[in-house]
């Protein structure tokens, strides 16, 4: 499929095809239905065409055309379901493989609860042995969800810790470490 384009800012993505009604434009490889509805496409970009696709050594040896077909037939976890893979195998003889989201499996809500509610630990409020320390990597504060490197040694929970700041100047800064450990 050719998408017509006569501009000058396309770089190597603009192609010339003499047999098309629109000679200049973007070359597209398309997966479409019988009705003509486009489901997926890959924009031809020379060597960068498969920049976001990973192929095995065997798939890479098949050539450019086969790589187009493989790239257009891969699904992500949004489209994967056991019913779809069963239908493809039984009716079309096509095997499918993919990661399935938990909400695509019937009865999964009984097996996996919607919210993982953890009980409040009384250790958090015992006021002994709670000392702030730092980790090299960044993480979210359990109390305010801001990014921090500080965590409580005893609870092993990331918390913001503000010291020596003027509370009137830094109104947005809160001491989550203190608030988290007090009732």
Structure summary:
This protein is an alpha+beta fold and 183 residues long.
Highlighted features:
PGBD, alpha+beta, PiggyBac transposable element-derived protein domain-containing protein, four-stranded antiparallel beta sheet, 5 helices, two-stranded antiparallel sheet, single chain
Protein described:
With 183 residues, this protein is α+β, with helices and mostly antiparallel strands. The protein folds into two domains: 2-111, no CATH class; 121-182, no CATH class. It contains five helices and six strands, in the order ββββααααββα. The strands form two sheets. Strands 1, 2, 3 and 4 form a four-stranded antiparallel beta sheet that branches. It is elongated and about 80 Å long. It comes from Pieris macdunnoughi.
Major β-sheet annotation: 4 strands, antiparallel
Task: Please tell me the total number of domains.
Answer: 2
How large a portion of the residues is in β-strands, by DSSP E? 15-25%
Q: Give the N-to-C terminal Cα separation.
A: 65 Å
Low-confidence stretches: none
Task: Supply the helix-strand structural class.
Answer: alpha+beta
Query: What would the principal axes of the Cα set say about the shape?
Result: elongated
Total number of strands: 6
Mean pLDDT: 78
Fraction of residues in helices? 10-25%
- Return the string of H and E elements: EEEEHHHHEEH
Q: Helix count, per DSSP?
A: 5
Please give the radius of gyration in angstroms: 27 Å
């Amino acid at each position: 499929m050719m998408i017509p384009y006569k501009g000058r800012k396309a770089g190597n993505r603009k192609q010339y095809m003499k047999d098309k009604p629109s000679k200049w434009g973007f070359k597209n490889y398309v997966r479409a239905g019988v009705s003509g509805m486009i489901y997926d496409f890959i924009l031809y970009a020379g060597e960068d065409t498969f920049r976001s696709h990973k192929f095995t050594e065997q798939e890479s040896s098949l050539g450019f055309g086969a790589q187009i077909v493989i790239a257009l037939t891969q699904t992500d976890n949004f489209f994967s379901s056991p019913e779809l893979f069963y239908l493809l195998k039984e009716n079309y003889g096509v095997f499918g493989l993919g990661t399935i989201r938990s909400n695509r499996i019937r009865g999964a809500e009984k097996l996996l609860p919607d919210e993982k509610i953890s009980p409040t630990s009384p250790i958090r409020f015992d006021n002994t042995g709670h000392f702030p320390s730092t980790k090299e990597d960044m993480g979210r504060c359990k109390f305010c969800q801001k990014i921090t490197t500080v965590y409580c040694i005893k609870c092993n929970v990331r918390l913001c810790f503000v010291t020596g700041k003027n509370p009137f100047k830094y109104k947005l800064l809160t001491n989550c470490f203190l608030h988290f450990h007090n009732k």
